[in-house]
Design brief:
The complex is a heterodimer. Chain A contains no helices and 11 strands. Chain A is an all-beta fold. In chain A, strands 2, 4, 5, 6, 9, 10 and 11 form a 7-stranded mixed sheet that branches. In chain A, strands 1-3-8-7 form a 4-stranded antiparallel sheet, with no helix packed on it. In chain B, the strands form 2 sheets. In chain B, strands 1-9-8-3-4 form a 5-stranded mixed sheet, with no helix packed on it. Chain B is an all-beta fold. Chain B has no helices and 9 strands. Chain B is globular and about 40 Å long. In chain B, 0% of the residues lie in helices and 46% in strands. The chains are: A mainly beta, B mainly beta. At the A-B interface, β4, β5, β9 and β10 of A face β3 and β4 of B.
Chain lengths: 112, 109
């Protein structure tokens, strides 16, 4: 069984640019959530997708957006990058009716 | 808002039991208590979760106070691989986890 995979693993972008991060959920999981983890902090919930629809959002501005595809993989898009967007971005998938979230290894985004 | 309180750090010796406390005094009747841990340079890993009763699995035990305002994660025999940040999370909605800063567990050989 393949776990949650994220790409790329590392990324450097310039302030003002746009970035797309990708996540392949674990087989059979129809719910995907995205988190931002700044250095020394716990992960912060960005939003969740269930069956291709946004199903809950944390305290993040609209320039953070996402998609979920029919195969339940997902993208996180961030527009107009700011220096404070530098963080580890984590994707987690969950099975139907399951209580356990499975996290990927994350994408380390650096904005310069 | 994580709404849980944990010590910033704890230490243990290898092969000894570890009791990691968590306070969640404003927990609602439908909130589950989840524990995740995060090893360096990795994503969080599920440990255990529960609602009212004590829970056991192959990784750990979760003891929940009768009033549900606190809980304790128990690692029965700490190993060096258990060194990680442990997060106590209260949540009622599947998959939406609101993390605090967690407890950094150091395990000494």
């Amino acid at each position: 069984e393949t776990g949650v995979t994220q790409s790329p693993t590392h990324l450097i972008k310039t302030r003002g640019q746009q970035v797309t991060l990708r996540c392949s959920s674990q087989s059979g999981h129809n719910t995907v959530s995205w988190y931002q983890q700044a250095l020394g902090q716990g992960p912060q919930f960005i939003f969740q997708y269930y069956r291709e629809e946004e199903n809950g959002r944390g305290n993040f501005p609209p320039r953070f957006s996402g998609l979920q595809f029919p195969n339940y993989s997902s993208e996180l898009n961030v527009n107009a990058l700011e220096l404070d967007d530098s963080a580890l971005y984590l994707c987690a998938s969950s099975p139907p009716l399951g209580a356990e979230a499975f996290f990927g290894q994350g994408t380390r985004l650096t904005v310069v | 808002d994580a709404k849980t309180t944990q010590p910033n750090s704890m230490e243990s010796n290898e092969e000894e039991p570890v009791h990691l406390p968590c306070n969640h005094s404003t927990i609602s009747g439908t909130d589950y208590i989840h524990w995740y841990r995060q090893l360096p340079s990795q994503g969080p890993e599920y440990v255990i979760h529960g609602l009212t009763s004590n829970v056991n699995n192959r990784m750990a035990s979760l003891a929940i106070a009768e009033d549900r305002k606190s809980s304790t994660l128990i690692l029965h025999r700490a190993t060096l691989r258990d060194a990680a940040v442990y997060y106590c999370i209260r949540g009622s909605t599947l998959g939406r986890l609101y993390f605090g800063r967690g407890t950094q567990l150091t395990v000494w050989p």
